[in-house]
Amino acid sequence: MFADFLKRLTAPDPAPLSSPDASLAMAALLVRIARSDGSYETDERSRIDRILARRYAMSPFEASKLRGEAETLEAEAPDTVRFTRAIKDAVPYEDREQVIEALWEIVLADGVRDEEEDALLRLVAPMLGVNDRDSALARQRVEAKRPGAT
Q1: Domain-by-domain residue ranges, the chain?
Q2: Residue 123 in contact with residue 80, Cβ under 8 Å?
Q3: Distances (CA, A) of 24 to 35, 70, 95, 111, 115
Q4: How far is CA 34 from the centre of its chain?
Q5: CATH of 3-8+16-145, one of 1.10.3680.10, 3.40.640.10, 2.60.120.200, 3.40.109.10
Q6: DSSP code of residue 3
Q7: DSSP 73
Q8: Rounded to an integer, what is the distance from CA 13 to the centroid of its chain?
């Protein structure tokens, strides 16, 4: 189902993605980061649904459907390096910077900076063209929104 999409995404000079394709690619990154620690729990899926609904002005049903498609895409996607670089080439910077914040939401969803998730995010951010400073600022914004933050 996603073979043509992945072929277009990983082509040597990918064309910019349409809005629906860009949202699917970004959702797949959220799924990849959530799965990176070997545990993909209901609360992570719910958090992804909320992020997608908020980011793309979707109903809960639409967000859940997109996440389901993203789960399939993520499983079929190439290694993180090629997949992320392909997204960098096809998605505007502003969208990539915002997805780093969403990725931090997933990493910090359970209140613990899991080593595997943290390491993957530190790998993904520069591949998306987002520098360490902007990624750290995104993490701080997410931490500030968490319950009990001062």
Answers
A1: 3-8+16-145
A2: yes
A3: 16, 6, 13, 26, 26
A4: 9
A5: 1.10.3680.10
A6: H
A7: H
A8: 22
- Residue 144, both tokens: 């500030």
Contact (CB, 8 A) for 110 and 128: no
How far is the C-alpha of 149 from the C-alpha of 73, rounded, in Å? Answer: 35
Whole-angstrom distance, CA of residue 125 vs CA of residue 127: 5
Residue 100 makes CB contacts below 8 A (sequence gap 6+) with 121, 124, 125, 128, 130, 134, 135, 138
Query: What is the reported pTM?
Result: 0.82
Q: What is the pLDDT of residues 34-77, one digit of tens each?
A: 888 888 888 889 999 999 999 889 999 999 999 999 999 888 87
- Dist. CA 140–CA 134, nearest whole Å: 10
| Encoded tokens for 101 | 């914040």
Q: Pick from 130, 142, 70: which is nearest to 105 by CA? A: 142
Distance between CA 8 and CA 124 in Å, rounded?
Answer: 20
How far is the CA of 63 from the CAs of 91, 106, 109, in angstroms? Answer: 20, 15, 18
